[in-house]
Amino acid sequence: MSARTPITAGNAGKGGKMGDEALLTVTNLCKTYGPQLGCEGVGFAMHPGEVLGIVGESGSGKSTLLGCLSGQLRATSGTVVYQAACGAVDMNRSPEQLVRRVSRTEMGIVHQNPRDGLRMHVSAGGNIGERLMANGERHYGGIRRKAMAWLERVEIGADRVDDIPAHFSGGMQQRLQIARNLITNPRLIFMDEPTSGLDVSVQARVLDIMRHLVTQLSLSMVIVTHDLAVARLLAHRLLVMRAGRVVEEGLTDQILDDPQHPYTQLLVSSVLAH
Ligand SMILES: Nc1ncnc2c1ncn2[C@@H]1O[C@H](COP(=O)(O)OP(=O)(O)OP(=O)(O)O)[C@@H](O)[C@H]1O
């Protein structure tokens, strides 16, 4: 693997403010599906306030890695230790109930397909509000007010609060997913190709909103994308994956401006050629 400048508090660029203690520490992570390799030998540490991009071609293991990091998939071996408010939690070995609780209260997941992250026939307000209820809020009026404020924050009019996501455009559905995930003040957000199904102009708006929210809320984020422009815009640091392994990692601008690994060079040059 080609490794460069380790990320530290202070060299983040892109306005990131990072804490010293790792939020996520991944060691020798491996996931297989029967005989099929998902990912192997993955290790890195991620700090609070950091945006980590995972890039690579289709089938390189990006979604598998994201699934293991977020506790949605159990790894075959290795560890993913998340520094939760209650202490360190191994997302792969801790009891499922604890992993689910930490995931619900401290993490958020924005899926590539809004159908995986939204209830399409529940109102927009209901989609956002149920996250607050799951975390113990019971005051209906307060939940509705907060839901409407978050709709405005992601540039969906508060007057759409009673509409169902099935009646929203693709860009609105992704912005609703973002609101649903951020309303509970998570510390760590996972995004799996959040803009890949959208038109370029719609993508730009969603990315702009994400960029502002990440900065405003000092969020930590892991974003999977095959789009290097998205990675350049949002990520402080990149992991480049190929055939299940991380082949290069480093600060985003360094990797994209001066790729060291032949595979990364190919990836970058194929984008420049378009
Ligand atoms: N449920 C599964 N059962 C069997 N093999 C799987 C499963 N999920 C993923 N794989 C395999 O694991 C490898 C990595 O797949 P993964 O979906 O993580 O890649 P990816 O980089 O996210 O691809 P894409 O960009 O196309 O979503 C592939 O060879 C894939 O076929």
Automatic annotation (TrEMBL):
One of its GO terms (molecular function) is ATP hydrolysis activity. SMART domains: AAA (SM00382). Keywords: ATP-binding, Nucleotide-binding, Transport. The keyword Transmembrane helix does not apply. It holds the Pfam family ABC_tran. InterPro entries: AAA+_ATPase (IPR003593), ABC_transporter-like_ATP-bd (IPR003439), ABC_transporter-like_CS (IPR017871), Oligopep_ABC_C (IPR013563), P-loop_NTPase (IPR027417), PhnK (IPR012700). GO terms for biological process: organic phosphonate catabolic process; peptide transport. Residues 24-268 form the ABC transporter domain. This is Abc transporter.
